[in-house]
Amino acid sequence: MAPQHRPVFIHSVFAAVLLIAISCRPNSGINKPAIAKKHEIQFKLERNNILLPVKVGDSRVFNIILDTGMHFEGLLLYNIAPEDSITLENAIEVEVPGAGGGAPSPALMVDSISFLVGDLEFKNQRLIILQSDIMKGFASEGVTGYSLFGKYIVHVDYDRMAIVLHESKAVIDSTWERLHMTFKEYKIPWIEAVVNIDGEEDIPISCYIDLASSDALELLVKENMKFNLPEDLEDAYLGRGLSGDIYGHKGRIAALKLGSFYLEDVMTHFAPAEIRSKQENADGIIGNNALRRFNVIFDYKRARLYIKPNEYFSEPF
Q1: 79: which DSSP letter?
Q2: What per-residue confidence (pLDDT) applies to 80?
Q3: Least confident of 53-57, 104-108, 219-223
Q4: Residue 168's pLDDT band (cuts 50, 70, 90)
Q5: Degrees, nearest 5: CA angle 277-279-282
Q6: For the chain, what is the largest distance between any 2 Cα atoms, rounded to a whole number of angstroms?
Q7: Which residues contact 191 (CB under 8 A, 6 or more apart)?
Q8: Using an 8 Å Cβ cutoff, are 270 and 249 in contact?
Q9: Pairing relation of β-strands 162-166 and 92-96?
């Protein structure tokens, strides 16, 4: 029987840009119940991407980006060589659309595999392997997200370069600032933030978190924007998504405010909304070059994001 053929929608690095971009130790501040289980996984931070060590069966260790845009339990792989020996049984053909103005990327998909993140096993997971070379040249070899975020409280400790996965509800102390998250389409976390373009006016914006973006901030250019574009913007190649390259502009804004914390003189990309983002009504996208200046805790089940400035908070952009 010929393989089935259908689209599979993946967001963030796939309906956002797989952009390539650094790092951060205080006491975690998490008071854990005595019997609470946790798992710790060391990660690498390369070009502002969190890279996790992942194995599929007897494969070598792949460098896999942790991405808030992966809305299903599973793993997407690319740049996989024939010698990587991943066996796919009963695979179907799919198309994976993403950022960019071109066609979706062809891929093969199976719906029930297991993989290891560090020493932690994830069972009954979806696996998608791109069949194009659109991601050729990237330091990573894939993406995962909701497998972790959907099951655990995820503490990203940039100071220790470690992710701690908590199985039960953690009591988080007052040294952390709590932000409210909402989840719209495809289980992607949104927060409210504030931008100041030219040092004059603070402007509230609605944005979503793209942990796979190596930028600090991407503001979406569209009709009826809440902000004016700054002067002295430069034409720029902004990155590549699963549907092709993305072009726009780059410049600086006076400040980005997350909770009560101001990040100043922020390098910002300005991208056409219809090309960059598949999320309706978004004003912008918070990337990992902003978040890495905090240690962060994602609690999807209670819709909370906790942030605490780390040693990289004041590092210039």
Answers
A1: S
A2: 82
A3: 104-108
A4: confident
A5: 90
A6: 64
A7: 179, 180, 181, 182, 207, 208, 209, 258, 286, 305
A8: yes
A9: unpaired
| Tokens 């102390």 belong to residue | 173
What DSSP string describes 104-152? PEEEEEEEEEEEEETTEEEEEEEEEEE-S-TTTT-S--EEE-HHHHTTS
CA distance linking residue 50 with residue 143, whole number of Å: 10
Tokens matching residue 183: 């989840």
Domains 5-26+33-166 and 173-309 share a fold: yes
Residues comprising the chain, all counted: 317
Q: Over the stretch 111-124, which tens digit does the pLDDT of each residue have?
A: 889 999 999 999 99
Name the DSSP class of 182.
E
Please tell me the least confidently modeled range out of 158-162, 190-194, 214-218, 272-276.
272-276
Q: What is the pLDDT of residues 236-247, one digit of tens each?
A: 988 876 566 888
Nearest Cα neighbor of 296 from 148, 161, 155 is 155
Domain residue ranges of the chain, discontinuous segments joined by +: 5-26+33-166, 173-309
Give this prediction's pTM.
0.85
Q: Which fold has domain 5-26+33-166?
A: Cathepsin D, subunit A; domain 1 (2.40.70)
CATH H-level, domain 173-309: superfamily: Acid Proteases (2.40.70.10)
Nearest to 80 by CA among 93, 97, 99, 63: 63
Amino acid letter, 7: P
Distance CA 291, CA 307 (A): 9
Torsion 9-11-16-21 (CA) sign: negative
**For residue 67, how far is the Cα from the chain centroid?**
3
Element (H, E) at 91: none
Q: Can you give the pLDDT at residue 242?
A: 59
Is-contact 298 154, C-beta < 8 A?
Answer: yes
Q: Is 275 helix (H, G, I), strand (E, B) or coil?
A: helix
